[in-house]
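Each letter names a residue; the fold follows as C-alpha cells. Both lines appear below:
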Amino acid sequence: MDAALAVADQVGIDRLTIRAVAKLADVPTMSLYSHFSSKDELLELMHAEVTQRLFAEEQYATWQAALVAVCTRLRDGLSAHPHWVPLLSRAASFVPAQVRERLLELMLTDGVSRAWATAALESALVVAKGLVLLELADGTAGPSSLVRAKLGAAPESGATGELDAAETFAVAVRTYVRGLESAKQRAL
C-alpha cells in the first residue's frame, strides 16, 4: 500500500499502474496479483488504507469536537496528498464504520434522531470536502481569492491579518458545526 500510495502521490490515480507500483516496491509485477486481482481491487484496498490513515479513531467528549476533528483530518490529509481525492470519491461514505458509529453515537446521546445525526454528519463531510477541493483548485498558499474578497482585501494587496487557508477552513468548519448545533436545538 505504501508503494501504491506513493505512486498515486507522484502521478495521480488515473495514471497509476500496477507496473509502477511493482517497480517502486522492487517486486515482480506478477507477484502483486497474489494480493489483488485487478487495478480496481488495488484502488479499493488503497481507499481502505487512506480512510484508515485519515480517520484514526480518537475519543471526543462531544460530537461537535469529533466532527471538527474528522473534518480537519480530512483537510490535512488531502492537502498533503491531493491525488487521494479520487480515492475518497470511490465510495458513498469515506469515513470508516467505527469512526462513523462513534460520531453517530455521540449525536444520539445528545438527543437527536439517527436520521438527523446521519444527515448532519454527511453534510459536514460534504462541506469539508468541498472546501478542500476549492482550496486545491485555487492553488494558493494563503486564502483563496474568494476568501480575500469576503475579507475586503484586494487580491493583490498582500494585506496583513488575512486568514491563511488552514485557519479559513477551521473557521468555516467550526461555524458550520455551530450551525448544526443550532439546527439540532430547533429540531428537538
Residues 57-187 form a domain with the Tetracycline Repressor; domain 2 fold (CATH 1.10.357.10). DSSP finds ten helices and no strands in the chain. Residues 146-154 have pLDDT under 50 and may be disordered.
